[in-house]
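hey so u asked for the seq, here:
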Amino acid sequence: MANTQKKRCAIYTRKSVEEGLDMEFNSLDAQRLAAENYVASQSANGWICLPERYDDGGFSGGNLERPALKKLLDDAANGLVDIIVIYKLDRLSRSICDFAELSKKFDEWGVSFVSVTQEINTSTSSGRMMLNILMTFAQYEREIIAERIRDKMSASRKRGQWVGGSIPFGYFVKDRHLLPDEKSSEYIRLMFETFVEKKSARDVAHLLNIRGIKTRQGKDWTASHIYRILNNRTYIGEVAYKGGVYPGEHEALVDRTLWDSAQEILKTNAPVPRGRPAKERYSPLKGLIRCGHCDGAMGPTYSMRRGRQYNYYMCLKDSKRDIHTCPVKTIPAGDVEKAVVTQLGMLFYTPTFISMVATQLRTTIAEVRNALGNIGGFWDDLFPAERDRLLHLLVESVTVLETGITIKIKTAGMRGLIKEVQSAND
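ran it, structure tokens below
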């Protein structure tokens, strides 16, 4: 006899780009129609489709910051949803760690999850196993695509091509090519010539300001603006990329002789460090930590007070602004590094994470629990350099917000960690 208990089904749809959403029947509509038909096929089991639409158009699946998804999770937490139905797994999330967290919440709320095209139903053990497998491949596919994009951009930069970013003053972009702007390119030559003559960036900025010449943002020039332009190799027709310099395909605005003269003056005017030099400190989160408010990297810095060195991570975008607006600005290095290590330790013991690791390594949950059982002692026994190495093995990024931090884990790095822990326990 069929189960006639009503099961309220919420349909969630997502599309990464906004293109095509203004069509009468778009991708979100197609996803919803397929899900509605699936729910209708389960009417004998008491499935009913909720009228509320949970549609996220123009939002990436790489994170959970989506308005419709947040509304869906709130309704599920409040007991208004029994089953979440989607067209395909990656519509909900492309991140294994994010999906692991969602799965944990679904279990707590007693909510099942169904993927129409992949025949996944988390109310069954086989459905949960298939979910873990498909999520692993979804994450792998996403990382492969990201690697291809990075490789393509790297190759393009090394060929001297323009691949986007902040457009240098004196140029404009047409058909993805940097072209000299007839008016502002003359100002670039004026800057270099005046600097060679006056040997002062402040004097160059003053000359531009009294002539009424503004920056691209319509602001007055400062010495820091001038220094950035004087050090930008774009103006001699080159492209600087990851420590290398490559011939650019764009036209130079300054000849080599004028450039070399400016560089010699810059070297002569370089400030001489004063006082006792700071102690060299390896910052384990360098290259991993980002400012969530400014969407940019954070870098190590320090201050000296009463002969003692205090280490921080600083929002690099905010440090370059004339007026500091970032609510994060700086964060104590020791505090954030300790928080990351603590969160990693907590992650190791979650049932969902242990299950995913067992699936990925093709081993049993018991073996994974045994390998991770002494992770605290294993971590404490490591030298600082080894801890730092493991952080880079496991952590993809650390995002700092005014309200806290978010850590994104490299699931592929767990394989190497498990082997090391097993070796330490043998």
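Residues 125-158 form the longest helix (34 residues). The domain at 7-147 is CATH 3.40.50.1390 (Rossmann fold).
lmk if thats what u needed
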